[in-house]
Amino acid sequence: MIDKIPAILWGSPSSQLYIYIHGQHGCKEGAEFLANLVTCHKWQVLRYYPCFEILHSRN
Q1: Is residue 11 part of a domain?
Q2: Which domain holds residue 42?
Q3: 41, part of any domain
Q4: Contact 39, 11 (CB under 8 A)
Q5: In what order do the strands lie in the sheet with 7-10?
């Protein structure tokens, strides 16, 4: 979680990071697919899902 927003981090600690942001009709499987491709090249992938309902419920 990042500030109460769902997030997943794949890969070992690295200075290289892809940030995969998706909306309501996206899916974590897309981020997982990317993670499977790039983590073997020493990249990390952060999946971040800033859902509309979560963002507006914080106000």
Answers
A1: yes
A2: 7-57
A3: yes
A4: yes
A5: 7-10, 44-48, 17-21
Report the sign of the C-alpha dihedral through residues 35, 41, 46, 49, in that order: negative
Distances (CA, A) of 26 to 13, 15, 34, 41: 26, 26, 13, 25
CB 11 within 8 A of CB 34: no
Residue type, 41: H
Burial 23-46, CB ≥16 within 10 A → b, else e: eeeeeeeebeebbeebbeeebbbb
- Reported pTM: 0.74
Q: What is the pLDDT along the chain (59 residues), one digit of tens a residue?
A: 777 777 899 999 999 999 998 877 777 788 899 999 999 999 999 998 776 555 455 55
